[in-house]
Amino acid sequence: MSDWKPSGSGVWVREYPFRGNSINSSAIDMGTGGLMVVSPGTNVPESDFAALDRLGTVKALVAPGSYHHMGLPEWSARYPEAGLFGPTSAIAHVAGQHRALKALQPLDALQRLLSDEFVLEEVNGCKHPDLFLALTRGGAVTWFTNELISNNATYPKSFVFRTLFRLNGDHPGLNVSRVASMLIRANRRSVRTYLEGKLASVPPTRLVPCHGEVLDDPELGRKLAEILARRF
Question: Any alpha helices (H) in the chain, and if so which ranges?
């Protein structure tokens, strides 16, 4: 039985363990034929690959930031024809971490492969920016997020990160993370301005975070705006 769980029209999510925590991989119908996988996971069983193959052809593997790359070699070996994509700073970072891996392409190259249902950008104001990906489909607007916006059920397992989260007021549940902003070297004012603009132009009703549980909520945009104003 596959661990890929439907999360809206043409979207499937799978949790995978990494250093004691759960991280999400998202398989998304590109709207032009084929699937893209955001944050490909590690140690994926063959049964899950087979289940994904029944859903469509994997054409793109996407690192949502500089620090979500450990599954790329495994997935690229499984899908050698798929392109690899990521934010600008991730291109050099991943090349240094995986020297045998083919080079990542910028997000502009991925955008050309997607239908007009998608908004795909880098979050402004960060040295190591997150991917911003929004999908309007089936009466919902889904945001796929990386480090900054999370919905964790618990604090991180790591003592260091758990302590940092508590010291910075990061908490389980829907959150805009100050710890993540430090990790990706974000200018909080710039990030807030950027995200406020996206909340106005493509207000989300569903969140598919790399960190935490999928959240469906018609009030999600308002709640994120309130958290962003309070935290950043």
Answer: 46-55, 72-78, 88-97, 107-111, 159-167, 178-183, 188-201, 220-231
Tens digits of residue pLDDT in 190-227? 999 999 999 999 999 999 999 999 999 999 999 999 99
> What is the spatial distance between Cα 57 and Cα 49, in angstroms, rounded to a whole number?
11
Buried b (16+ CB within 10 A) or exposed e, 159-189: eebeebbeeeebeeebbbbbbbbebbebeee
CA-based diameter of the chain, in Å? 45
Amino acid identity for residue 24 in this structure:
N
State the Cα–Cα distance between residues 7 and 137, nearest whole angstrom. Answer: 12
The DSSP-derived string for 115-176 is: -TTEEEEEPTTBSSPPEEEEEEETTEEEEEE-SSEEEESS--SSHHHHHHHHHTT--SEEEE
The one-letter amino acid code at 31 reads G
Strands 149-152 and 118-122, sheet pairing: unpaired
Residue 83 burial (CB count, 10 A): 17
The pLDDT, as a whole number, for residue 152 is 92
Report which of 51, 18, 16 is spatially closest to residue 35, judged by C-alpha positions.
Answer: 51
Tokens representing 147?
Answer: 């480090």
Using alpha carbons, select from 104, 87, 86 the residue that is nearest to residue 95.
Answer: 104
Q: What is the identity of the amino acid at 231? A: R
